[in-house]
Amino acid sequence: MLVAGAALTARWVSGTRIRDATGPATVSSRRGTSEAHTAPEERTTHRFLYLDEPAALADRLTLGRFVGDRLQEAAQWGFVSLDNWHHWAASLFARETDWTAEDQPGWRISTWLCTTQGGPYDSTHLFWSLQALRFLDPGSIAIEIDMIESAPGKIRICLTQGPSDYDYETDTLCWNPTETEHVPAHAGLERKWFRTDPLITLAHELSHAWYDLCRGGDSVAPRAREQHAVMTENRIRHIMFLKDPTRKHIWPRPGYRQTWPDLPGLSAQQAWRNYDGRVEY
After folding, report:
1. What percent of the chain has pLDDT over 90?
2. Within this chain, do residues 254 and 118 fall inside the same structural domain, yes or no?
3. Are 109 and 126 in contact (CB under 8 A)?
4. Which of 50, 51, 177, 259 is in Cβ range 3.0-4.6 Å of 121 for a Cys bridge?
5. What are phi and psi of 174, to 5 degrees?
6. Is residue 132 located within the same domain as residue 178?
7. pLDDT at residue 27 is higher than 50
8. 277 and 227 in contact (C-beta within 8 Å)?
9. Which has the closest alpha carbon to 134: 114, 151, 110?
10. How many secondary structure helices (H) and strands (E) does the chain include?
């Protein structure tokens, strides 16, 4: 299904926006809300806002804190980019009331990363990437992450410098945390949808992991598995297009095979208007 425009459940948040010289854009005051002492319908959650929601910070990827469906007063944080999110997310949530990383969906998956390599792309980076996906798409990919962790099995996660991939035989997810361009097998092949993002490729491969652990993916035809993964990928592509001002170049992916032509349109916005939710194999 095509992701709708902004689901305008948020309310206008009062307060003057300020710019922290060393951190993300925020608002002038904050209130903590205890998740442990609220009724289920008053549960504290977080999500990234759509760019056209009234409370979204201008030209920023904006995170909001909600109690139930109500955006809390002065509880938004703006990020220049996803790299900026990775830099500040841990310190931001360290100040959130009753929020512990080890208790969040995605923590268990992040411990499955099997690498001894140094550098910035460790289990902590994977954990905050998973949180970004949860906050971008709480209605779908967040549920799949929770189901993967609740499944009786587990997968291996490895980093790669090549294309991201999922192997059903070995239950191994290979993820390239710097992948921003799909490299075609045929030299000279150019498509607008080849432009991607590490979160997009992570969502695609997590969809395969969900299919494998929760839907008996080993016995399912590759066509069904790949079409589901591309549909998940397009959901995240569209949500990032609608929520992150630095991802306005992200086009829909027309199908699994790289030879499928781009959807018609002179811009990504026009291409998304022509996307009807179907994907080819």
Report:
1. 75
2. yes
3. yes
4. 177
5. -105, 125
6. yes
7. no
8. no
9. 110
10. 7, 8
pTM (two decimals): 0.86
Handedness of CA 49, 280, 146, 174 (dihedral sign): negative
Q: How many CA atoms lie within 13 A of 223 on its CB side?
A: 2
Structure tokens belonging to residue 126: 């994977």
| Coil vs helix vs strand at 141 | helix
Structural domain harbouring 176: 100-281
CA distance linking residue 84 with residue 57, whole number of Å: 15
Looking at per-residue pLDDT, the higher value among 146 and 34 belongs to 146
Residue appearing with tokens 């459940």 = 9
Copy the structure tokens of residue 93.
Answer: 């949530």
Same domain (yes/no): 121, 255: yes
Residues 59 and 175 in one domain: no
Q: Residue 168 has which token pair?
A: 């059903």
Cα distance between residue 43 and residue 243, in whole Å: 23
Residue linked to tokens 């425009």: 5
pLDDT per residue over 133-174, tens digit each? Answer: 999 999 999 999 999 999 999 999 999 999 999 999 999 999
pLDDT digit string, tens, across residues 163-220: 999 999 999 999 999 999 998 888 889 999 999 999 999 999 999 999 999 998 888 8
